[in-house]
Amino acid sequence: MTATVDTRTISVPGATLTYDVHPAVGDRPPLFVFGSPMEAEAFGTLRGHFADRTVITYDPRGAGRSTVDDPTSQSTPLEHATDLQAVLDATGLGEIDVFATSGGAVNALVWVAAHRPNVRVLVAHEPPATQFVPDREIVEAVVNDIADTYQAAGEGPAMAKFIALVSHEGPFPGDYLDAPAPDPAMFGMSAEDDGSRTSPLLGQNMRTCCPFVHDVDALTAAPTRIVVAAGAASGEQFAARAARALATTGGFEQVVLPGDHAGFLGGEYGQVGEPDAFADALHGVLDS
């Protein structure tokens, strides 16, 4: 008999969070999987590969089923870290393992550094942390330009710039922002502005996630085993470069997981990575 997912809500300062507990029978630690601002639904395929563990998923503040009191406000990694601790406390599950990707990996690192949660293993997959790359100043300028574009012109033009950012190979040249902006139509998006400014990615997290300054000393002193992962197909894209540089700076374990930044997806958001191979590799990391 398949256990029914237990969906719950909790109130935290400035937000109401929705999270899910997918129960399983076994002696493996529960697994908390998340991104940011990626919602719980993005991890349906990955979760299915961990039927031997209770799996926790959640929607970050302002995304999906989770709300914020002010949807036009910015959310910081420190706030997300406090939210993660609140979710873990609410589950009552004790020691857990964590797989966190992209902005979620940034938030998870802050969580471990600031809260010392009862996390046995953290696999931080491609955290886009500008702090650790040599082209930090230009990347942060690009990030701010995307946020400015969103406020001035809306989602289509800003998302086109975001896609160009995350797919760019290698360090960003100093004159990157002098080039013509990409056409949203190239990515199947409209350039028209619908007037909304509540995107959890472009409005709430764009300026705060990548430039966050991590406390490497606190991370290395934490009892959590930190494993930093980059995608085998991510090449020299920013998030993969940042992951490798973070691992080198902190002396953390480095692993390569199949696929690219979205290697775990199995059709969610219309994207298919290498979910079977990705899950097998993640099992190996968690069980080693």
UniProtKB/TrEMBL annotation:
The lineage of its organism: Bacteria, Bacillati, Actinomycetota, Actinomycetes, Mycobacteriales. Transmembrane segments: none annotated. Residues 52-169 form the AB hydrolase-1 domain. InterPro entries: AB_hydrolase_1, AB_hydrolase_fold. One of its GO terms (molecular function) is hydrolase activity. It comes from the Bacteria. This is Alpha/beta fold hydrolase. Keywords: Hydrolase.
